[in-house]
Specification:
The structure holds 2 protein chains of 2 kinds. Chain A is mostly helical. Chain A is 74% helix and 0% strand. Chain A is elongated. Chain B is built from 14 helices and no strands. Classes of the chains: A mainly alpha, B mainly alpha.
């Protein structure tokens, strides 16, 4: 019997505890509703070229700063571009940047945290010191530091976001690994002659990964806000490529003329982030891991 | 502890800003300048020295209170920071007091009228306040109170009334956080034996909640406030920019856009110091409040 089948004993065959918890989450009203909203946002982002009513860069200088009408549901901006279309195309940037950056951040942070927790010693002390140092700093300040280094743009935004959240995942994984590395099944694996890599990847990470993934999911929401904030500062994705933050930034100059250019992208951010938080919260309940998230 | 952390942070900030690809000298040169004129400018700002030497010079000047001259703004960085720091301190300080006072009150009300409509209202506000992006909240407040109702100025820092919206924007996030912690802590304390004893003695519900439970519950609130002081600093950076207020945050973002290294360094350093000093101050206040922590230090 392989280790993988041994791990699933106790639950119904072929289905892990995570899949069962996902099912339970989707059946609560908060989980179901927020999943539906997220699905809509992701679908809009993926299908942007087909569902957007206009091209994101199609200017119409005869119809600038128009209030919402039937032709333009969310109005037009200072160049007569359709706000709704730009929000839909902007969803691609926001979601892709946030998800990629957090994905990288989780992978790197998890590796650092797992190695630090498992091996201990000097490496652990260095990682812990760096993590503690960055922990008290606001993410926006860390991100600004790296944007200052790399210059404005898509790449810098991704790197800045990935680094800003690194400490969180390293800290969380380290705490999980420290909690389980002295369990008897790990000791048994050591006594049976298992190598370090085998222990970390087959025994420690599978048991430590769930809270980290959930924390990562919640962090995608924060990362969307951070991406929008950098875009708002004019340091994110550069025009004409639309992004929610940059749209609101140019809307601020028009706050008296065309307030809908601020309201639309803001609502898109709020809907996405609130959905992510509600879904994550319902998932935490279903998985019963609130304590494991709080411990670190 | 503060000195090695300060050295580490200063080194990181110095390295970061000096690895930047863009060159501020290019912004200063007139079109058609000769390479010799360029070399003279580079030498004047010491950019031709090895990095270690530049760091040493920078650190020595820093300890003497000299942060160098701004390349684009052509003014001592210390002067620029001295001009913007009071604005940031005022904004951050007011936002901090607002979040602490209103947050504790809201949390305490929610906890002592648990499961009432009031409690649910506070909880809904907490959810909204902690998830909405702060700069959008700022823009919404601006739209309602400055553009539509015309009660308050849209931006700037010319009058005291211009402070209201920025303080509210940063503060609402803080209120949500503080209210959540206060409520949870009070519900936790409410389950302890001494509270049962107070009930048995015949004290009224509100007397117990406000005079006894709240005092015990304040400790975790102070811990959270001191841990999250950096987040007030981060909020101030963002919100200053939204409301076009002078301050360290606005100065930092403008300087990043103009690639003005010395100013970026100075601002990042000041903001980092603010975070570190704030956290330290929080520890001190916590020790002063809790006899157990105080005794363990002796």
């Amino acid at each position: 019997m392989s280790a993988a089948t041994a791990a699933t004993i106790g639950t119904s065959p072929g289905r892990s505890a995570v899949v069962l918890a996902l099912g339970r989450t989707l059946r609560t009203w908060r989980g179901g509703l927020s999943a539906l909203c997220l699905l809509a946002v992701v679908a809009a982002a993926l299908l942007a070229p087909w569902v957007a009513p206009y091209a994101y860069d199609a200017q119409n200088l005869q119809a600038t700063n128009q209030a919402p009408t039937l032709a333009h549901w969310l109005g037009t901006d200072e160049f007569g571009r359709d706000v709704l279309s730009r929000i839909i195309v902007g969803a691609r940037t926001s979601l892709a940047v946030a998800a990629t950056a957090i994905g990288v951040s989780v992978l790197v942070g998890m590796s650092l945290g797992a190695a630090a927790g498992y091996f201990g010693g000097l490496f652990d002390r260095i990682v812990t010191a760096v993590v503690d140092l960055t922990w008290s700093f606001p993410e926006v300040l860390i991100a600004l530091m790296f944007v200052a280094l790399m210059g404005a743009g898509l790449q810098a935004t991704m790197v800045a976001i990935a680094i800003a959240y690194l400490a969180q995942f390293a800290r969380l994984t380290r705490a999980q690994v420290m909690g389980i590395k002295n369990e008897t099944y790990v000791e048994a694996a050591v006594n049976l002659g298992a190598g370090h890599l085998h222990i970390v990847f087959r025994h420690l990470l599978p048991n430590a990964i769930t809270p980290v993934i959930v924390a990562g999911m919640l962090a995608v929401g924060d990362a969307i806000i951070l991406e929008a904030t950098l875009g708002f500062f004019g340091l994110g994705v550069q025009p004409p490529q639309p992004s929610w933050g940059a749209m609101m930034s140019s809307g601020t100059a028009q706050i008296f003329l065309a307030p809908w250019t601020i309201l639309g992208p803001g609502l898109a951010i709020a809907l996405t982030v609130v959905s992510i938080n509600l879904f994550g919260d319902a998932l935490i309940e279903a998985l019963d891991i609130r304590n494991r998230l709080r411990d670190s | 502890m503060l000195v090695p952390v300060f050295l580490a942070v200063s080194l990181v900030i110095f390295m970061l800003v000096h690895l930047v690809p863009g060159d501020p000298i290019d912004n200063l040169l007139q079109i058609g300048s000769s390479p010799e004129q360029r070399a003279a400018l580079v030498a004047r700002y010491g950019l031709d020295q090895p990095l270690v030497v530049q760091y040493g010079v920078w650190l020595r000047q820093l300890l003497a209170g000299d942060l160098g001259d701004a390349i684009v703004l052509r003014q001592p960085v210390t002067e620029l920071i001295a001009e913007s720091l009071p604005h940031s301190l005022l904004l951050g300080g007011l936002a901090f007091v607002f979040s602490a006072v209103v947050g504790v009150l809201a949390g305490a009300v929610a906890a002592s009228y648990r499961d009432s409509a009031l409690d649910r209202g506070v909880m809904a506000f907490i959810l909204l306040g902690s998830t909405l992006p702060s700069f959008w909240l700022g823009l919404l407040l601006m739209l309602v109170f400055a553009v539509q109702l015309e009660w308050l100025p849209v931006s700037g820092a010319r009058s005291w009334s211009a402070l209201v919206l920025p303080v509210l924007t940063i503060g609402l996030h803080g209120v949500a956080l503080v209210a959540r912690v206060t409520r949870a802590a009070m519900l936790d304390v409410g389950r302890r034996d001494f509270v049962l004893m107070l009930h048995a003695k015949g004290l009224s519900h509100s007397q117990i909640q406000w005079r006894h439970v709240l005092r015990h519950a304040l400790l975790p609130v102070v811990t959270i406030l001191s841990l999250r002081i950096g987040w007030i600093v981060g909020g101030a950076v963002t919100i200053e920019f939204v409301f076009a207020r002078p301050g360290l945050g606005s100065l930092l973002i403008t300087s990043i856009n103009q690639r003005d290294y010395p100013v970026v360094q100075g601002c990042l350093l000041m903001l980092a110091m603010a975070v570190m000093l704030g956290t330290l101050l929080g520890d001190v206040v916590q020790a002063a409040m809790d006899p157990r922590v105080r005794d363990s230090l002796k």
